[in-house]
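Help: why these numbers?

___
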Amino acid sequence: MALLFTPLQMVGVELANRICVPPMCSCEATDGVGSDALLRRYGKLAATGAGLVVVEATAVEAAGRITTRCLGLYNDRQQAFFEKLLQACRQSAPAETKFFLQLSHSGRKGSRCDPRTGHGTLLPEQGGFPLIAPSARPFTPDAPVPRAMTEEDIAGVLAAFEAAAARAAQIGFDGIQIHGAHGYLVHQFLSPVTNDRTDRWGGDRDGCMRFALAVVDAVKKGAPGLPVMMRISACDWIEGGATCEDAAALAAALKEHGVCAVDVSSGGVDPAQKLPASITAAHTEFSRKIRTQAQVVTFTSGGIVEPLQAEEILRTRQADGVCIGREMLRNPGWVWAAAQSLGGGVQPPAGFVSAF
């Protein structure tokens, strides 16, 4: 059988296959509460046959949203929506599909405009919200300068991650993914580009990793027993930024804190980044190094389109699992086509068992 369709054992959870639908922001929320369109979207993604579906970036507090249309999980109305969403997903999905929720805080990259109406950062008087970050460095020259976080701010964000994790557990998610990539708050602490602190939350590599590890501990405290993974940026693609060696050290530390896997991506911390010609090749090489050095389960993502391409990544041990994002949106039958071409087996969705 193709490796793509073999089970993947992670700490605390087993996936029926090695295909993941990664989190992809849709900006379909109002005051952090999702829409009926979002229910329909995840109903389709749940039915794809992927072993793991990760629901998109969900802010742990109002000021942690990326845009004013992003999801949140910090009040009862939002929790009620997620209960409805997860119920809809389980009704559509094969029984073996696992659902994780990605918890996030945007830091200096928050308070963005609704992407349907424009770009840029909204000021509080325009309907935005105040920005916080490890250091008082704006994302772009014309963006508001974030307030450097105090110890009280850091404690408050950690408490927010813990509370959101507790809600995710109550809702019934199978696990939690922490967004530690793409220039959002956790990544901002990890990168020298955005963290010039001289206290215990910055300085050397261990200091810069401290917040990410504290977030993991907070999430595990809020949702004891639930598996936790983290999405990381393995390279900042800018001079003086974090490198794959930093990412491997982070992954090893995350493993010690009980993280079940890392999803390897890159970039996002600074708009001056210079991306390589092939992001897929870069990510798979990063994933291979991190997997080898940290001895942790890795997923890789970015430009994976063909089933044979995904199978080759697994066969050459560049990753343990693959994330199929944009291609899954374009072709929700990707998993079924891959199973047919590679000779794999996929459990049909609950409503179609008789057809198979």
Notes: The first helix runs from residue 36 to 46.
